[in-house]
Design brief:
Low-confidence stretches of chain B: none
Structural class of chain A: alpha/beta
Radius of gyration of chain B: 12 Å
Largest sheet of chain B: none
Distance between the termini of chain A: 49 Å
Strand order of the largest sheet of chain A: 2-1-8-7-9-10-11-12
Largest interface: A-B, 14 and 15 residues
Distance between the termini of chain B: 9 Å
Oligomer: heterodimer
Low-confidence stretches of chain A: none
Number of helices of chain A: 10
Shape of chain A: globular
Helix content of chain B: 40-55%
Number of strands of chain A: 22
Helix content of chain A: 25-40%
Mean pLDDT of chain A: 89
Number of helices of chain B: 3
Shape of chain B: globular
């Protein structure tokens, strides 16, 4: 019997409660009743023990991030239930199988120290926890809702080597880290489009880093990984595909995918693509397109333009209803450490003049940080 | 906020916008100046920007509930004054 063989014997976890190893987690899991096990607001430790119990008993496991959403009744199919991020409306339950989750992960490489930046009970969080467990790594996690400053402190203290997070996380992390003593071996970005300025900043800050950004959708999971340090992906992939995966573009200029495990029917990802030279770039979600006086504008594209400035640490561009043009964009900017408001606000004002008129934010507000949802992505109030 | 006070705010914000755009001081703006249609050197995107500036300055968003017709500087000021 190879129970819990996904939990590598060398795996260890350091959280605010202390440090535990794989054997202790397996032992903790054996003391849980795995039939319809509900884990409210779980941390990584509770999830790992819960997974052991789930696998041993073959019961359902409910990872309940939002206890305001009731647990489904009488499933008994041996599934892992996660709550979707709920950026629009209430979170919904979605089921997964441990085998299928494991098959998507690669735990290989030399043993490293990983840091969890996602909510433990989110899909991305579970993937990081499982990858670390599978590969026998050392996983460091902070307290629930830890700030970027807390996380940067943890990274330095534990000499972390691998971090995966959203671009929004990474911008805040770079600010919080400053010149703290940290050199990462691997940086992964996912969940949002990675802009060139951020990729450049990460490569400069961590000279020996293996830098990659992942393209995934909720429906399909991870589709491909880009490791050349450039935003977007090679436009040649539209001709060559990537392995069994075939890429295409819909009439509305969104990326479509088919082939391999996806089957032959093209799936529309809803992500708008623009080809510039040899590169395909993500413009933004089709449902985030804003119509400004009859001109289509992608807030994410405007953000990428503003982020090209060194003095800008992060920016959120969102639409505001306007009686004249239907909508108009407004921007919230977090200045980089050391930026001088007098000089750099003028520089930013000049820089946005390079945008098409309809895409220029009508108002720029300066903030100390941006709000993020449970997913670690920017909270887009103006979305679909 | 009274209508005359709001009118002064609209005129001031409009003057800044025109000065920024044309690089020269704005002409005298009257309450019955027509906002678009060639009355002032601004177009619809400038006017949209003016509305945002007024929303920020007054803390009011009178168009949140939907569109209200205005043509002149004075009519726009009245909408903000009443909000």
């Amino acid at each position: 019997m190879a129970q819990s063989d996904w939990l590598h014997p060398a795996f260890t976890l350091a959280d605010p409660r202390g440090e535990v190893d794989a054997a202790a987690l397996i032992e903790a899991g054996r003391h849980l009743d795995g039939q319809n096990l509900v884990l409210p607001h779980p941390d990584a430790r509770a999830i790992l023990a819960g997974l052991v119990a789930h696998e041993t008993s073959g019961g359902d496991l409910f990872i309940q991030r939002d206890t305001g959403v009731e647990v489904l009744d009488g499933q008994g199919q041996g599934l892992i239930w996660l709550q979707s991020s709920g950026s629009t409306g209430k979170p919904k339950w979605a089921s997964h199988r441990l085998d299928e989750l494991k098959s998507r992960l690669a735990g290989g490489q030399a043993r490293g120290t990983w840091l969890l930046t996602y909510a433990p009970g989110s899909f991305a969080g579970l993937q990081v926890i499982l990858s670390a467990a599978l590969g026998g790594h050392h996983l460091v996690t902070g307290a629930p809702g830890a700030s970027a400053t807390d996380i940067a402190g943890l990274a330095v203290r534990h000499k972390v080597s691998h971090i995966s997070g959203t671009p929004t996380f990474w911008r805040a992390f770079l600010i919080a880290l400053g010149d703290g003593d940290l050199d990462l071996a691997a940086v992964t970005l996912g969940g949002e489009a990675a802009d060139q300025a951020l990729l450049d900043a990460l490569a400069a800050r961590f000279p020996s880093v293996h830098l990659r950004h992942i393209y995934a959708t909720t429906e399909t999971g991870t589709l491909f990984t880009i490791s050349d340090g450039r935003a977007g992906f090679p436009a040649s992939w539209f001709e060559t595909g990537i392995g069994a995966l075939r890429l295409g573009r819909s009439e509305r200029e969104t990326l479509t995918v088919r082939g391999g495990r996806l089957g032959e029917l093209a799936i529309d990802t809803g992500d708008c693509i623009a080809v510039e030279g040899d590169r395909a770039l993500f413009r933004g979600r089709i449902d985030s397109v804003v119509n400004i006086g009859g001109v289509k504008v992608w807030p994410e594209e405007v953000e990428a333009h503003i982020l090209a400035l060194d003095c800008v640490a992060d920016v959120l561009v969102s639409p505001r209803a306007n009686p004249v043009t239907g909508h108009i964009l407004v921007a919230e900017i977090v200045l980089a450490a050391g930026a001088m408001p007098d000089i750099h606000e003028a520089q930013i004002k000049k820089h946005v003049m390079d945008l098409p008129r309809a895409a220029r934010p009508a108002m720029i507000r300066y903030k100390t940080h941006l709000d993020t949802g449970q997913t670690g992505k920017k909270a887009r109030a103006g979305g679909a | 906020m009274t209508h005359p006070a709001t009118l002064d705010i609209v005129k001031a914000e409009l003057a800044v916008l025109i000065a920024d755009k044309t690089g020269t001081a704005a002409p005298e703006i009257s309450a019955d100046a027509v906002l678009l249609e060639g009355g002032l050197p601004i177009d619809s995107l400038d006017l949209a920007t003016l509305v945002v500036a007024l929303e920020e300055r007054t803390g009011k968003q009178p168009f949140r509930q939907g569109f209200r017709l205005f043509r002149t500087v004075g009519e726009l000021a009245a909408i903000f004054a009443e909000a």
